[in-house]
Amino acid sequence: MIKRIVTLTVLVPALLSTAVSAAEAHPAPRATADVVTLTYDASDAGQWAGPIEQAVQNWNNAVHNVRLEPTSTPGEADYVYEATSGWPQTTLGPIFPGGSGEVQLGQQAVDEGYDATRITAHETGHILGLPDDYSGPCSEIMSGHGPGTSCTNAKPDAAEAAQVDKNYADGATAMLRNHHHQIVIDVWTGRVLTGSH
């Protein structure tokens, strides 16, 4: 019995040493996607600062392949938020670093009774490449005005987050793709206008 314990005492450290050496020789596989960081400038967003902060946090909590961060150099952001008096409108992405996206946060939607944070999260969804789905339920951020003014959900659902992660799944490789961008004008009363950008 003592001979077996001594043998195990010698073998266990030797086996652990082999396992550690093998792990060092074969590093764990890297994640397949590099995280894309998009910077934004909210210096012209005025009263939308709070809704922008919350909407960005909601998106950052929901997705893995892209991260939204405020720019440290105004004028060099990948996209901007701007307060306007009209209807919300946004560049339809996905936007990548070096891009020139724009989110116009229109006061008319707030005047009609829509939640400012939901509007901001919805418009940010366009920057990340999601189209409108006005027939969707309140749980979908891209359903926009469809569910009515009582809907204040400002968090993307799992399917929306998965699509954004897919849009940015290839990291740097995805940035090399040629993207056609258009401006989506979200008239939060039922009419939808789009135009090329």
UniProtKB/TrEMBL annotation:
Keywords: Hydrolase, Metal-binding, Metalloprotease, Protease, Signal, Zinc. Gene3D superfamilies: Collagenase (Catalytic Domain). Pfam families: Peptidase_M7. It comes from the Bacteria. Residues 1-22 form the signal peptide. This is Extracellular small neutral protease. It comes from Streptantibioticus parmotrematis. The keyword Transmembrane helix does not apply. The lineage of its organism: Bacteria, Bacillati, Actinomycetota, Actinomycetes, Kitasatosporales. The keyword Protease applies. GO terms for molecular function: metallopeptidase activity. Belongs to the peptidase M7 family. Its cofactor is Zn(2+). Its EC number is 3.4.24.77. It catalyses: Hydrolyzes proteins with a preference for Tyr or Phe in the P1' position. Has no action on amino-acid p-nitroanilides.
